[in-house]
Write a sequence for this structure.
C-alpha cells in the first residue's frame, strides 16, 4: 500500500511540475498579423506576411506541452517567421516508436509547406535530441539547427554538417549541465555557435514548473526567454531573412 501511495504521489508531482503555467491567453490568440492554429500533433504560429524564406520547426521537451513554449516562440512569428511546434506523442514520447513519430511529424511539415525555402530545426531537451537526430538523417532538407538545453548529440556525429548550428545552454541547468553539454562538442561542427545563458536553468526555457534535478535560476524567466529568442532570430535572419 505504501508503494502505491508513493507511486501516486510521484506521478502527481511529475505531472504538476510540467504543467503549463503563466501563459498569457493573448499569446494563444490569432490577432494582428499572426494566426494561431492548434491540433493534436502541433501548434502553429503563421504570420500573414512572412519575413523572407525561412521557417522554424521546434520540437517540445519531454512532458512539456506545446503551449508552454508559446511565450518563447510567438514573438518569433511576430517578426515574420512561421513557427511550427511539434508535440511529442503521449507528451513524453516514452517509446522509440514515439520518438520516430515526432521526427516524422517534423518531416511532414516540410513536405506540407513547399513554399518555405529554408528550414531551421530546433528543440528543447528531448526535443533537442530529436532535432539532432533529424539533422543527421535529413540534413539535405535543413538550412540550420538550433539545440536548446540538451546534452545531445551523444551517439550521433554531426561534425560533418556544413549548415549553421547553434547550441543554447544555461549555466544553472541541472538536467543538461554545462559540463555534459560541452563534453560532446566534438560531435558538432567546428563552426557551431555556442550561446551560454548565464543564470538560466532548464525549466525556464518554457512556461512550466521546476523539473526534478534542475538547478535554481538567478535570472527571471522572461530574461531567459528573450535571450533565447534573440539567438533563434539571429539564425533565421542569417539563413532566410529579407534580401
Amino acid at each position: 500500500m505504501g508503494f502505491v501511495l508513493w507511486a501516486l504521489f510521484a506521478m502527481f508531482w511529475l505531472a504538476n511540475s510540467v504543467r503549463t503555467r503563466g501563459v498569457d491567453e493573448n499569446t494563444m490568440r490569432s490577432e494582428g498579423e499572426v494566426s494561431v492554429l492548434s491540433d493534436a500533433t502541433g501548434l502553429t504560429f503563421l504570420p500573414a506576411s512572412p519575413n523572407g524564406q525561412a521557417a522554424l520547426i521546434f520540437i517540445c521537451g519531454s512532458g512539456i506541452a506545446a503551449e508552454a513554449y508559446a511565450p518563447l516562440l510567438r514573438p518569433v512569428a511576430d517578426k515574420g517567421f512561421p513557427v511550427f511546434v511539434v508535440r511529442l506523442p503521449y507528451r513524453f514520447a516514452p517509446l522509440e516508436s514515439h520518438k520516430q513519430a515526432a521526427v516524422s511529424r517534423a518531416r511532414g511539415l516540410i513536405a506540407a509547406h513547399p513554399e518555405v525555402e529554408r528550414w531551421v530545426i530546433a528543440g528543447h531537451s528531448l526535443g533537442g535530441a530529436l532535432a539532432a537526430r533529424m539533422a543527421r538523417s535529413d540534413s539535405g532538407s535543413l538550412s540550420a539547427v538550433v539545440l536548446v538545453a540538451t546534452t545531445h548529440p551523444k551517439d550521433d556525429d554531426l561534425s560533418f554538417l556544413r549548415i549553421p548550428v547553434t547550441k543554447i545552454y544555461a549555466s544553472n541547468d541541472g538536467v543538461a549541465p554545462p559540463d555534459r553539454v560541452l563534453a560532446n562538442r566534438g560531435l558538432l561542427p567546428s563552426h557551431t555557435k555556442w550561446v551560454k545563458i548565464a543564470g538560466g536553468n532548464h525549466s525556464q526555457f518554457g512556461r512550466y514548473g521546476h523539473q526534478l534535478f534542475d538547478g535554481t535560476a538567478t535570472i527571471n524567466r522572461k530574461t531567459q526567454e528573450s535571450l533565447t529568442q534573440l539567438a533563434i532570430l539571429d539564425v533565421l535572419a542569417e539563413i532566410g531573412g529579407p534580401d
User: Anything to note?
Assistant: The longest helix spans residues 221-240. The radius of gyration is 17 Å. The longest strand covers residues 118-124.
